[in-house]
Fold this protein.
Amino acid sequence: LRMVSRESRIHTVNMDARLFLAHLPQEKTYEMIFGDAVNDFAVPYQITTREFYGLVHAHLAPGGVYATTIIDDPRYARFTTALVRTLQHVFASVTLFPMGSDLENGEGRNTFEIVASDVPFDTEQWKQVRPRQSDAFSPLSQETWKKMMSAADPAALERFLSQHQTPMLTDDYAPTDHYLAPVFGDAYTGRR
């Protein structure tokens, strides 16, 4: 376990993200907000809704970026597609990184990164990121790393969304557990 140095400019708060953002002064903004609250199959639904992303959007500086990590299976993809649709309702640009999975033919549980902003995300610049030698990803081959850093093609993402007709997530309708049920079931029955 690595600890963040006390001299770091990183400031952490041990609080539900929605409550934190709801109580922030309106003028307080960030260049980046990163969400990584999904723990295996446990999804805090209150930070997946249109209303929550409205709070995120309100606290992003102009050109700011929101990024989140989720787990799903491209065969089902109900959670992924609902989340992408929800973010598309709030942000002008949403980019999906399937982390090496094939959106149209992939199978098995996988990690997805989703990046949202009001400005297009520079996926070509992102591909230039390389792990430091000390990073956990450094043992990966360059080919594997390249796949992980590649965004889904916009046309492929649109086809993927059209194959999975899930509505956006709202405070009134956020069945995240239901959407992930088949992925959960596969994990405990040994199916892939």
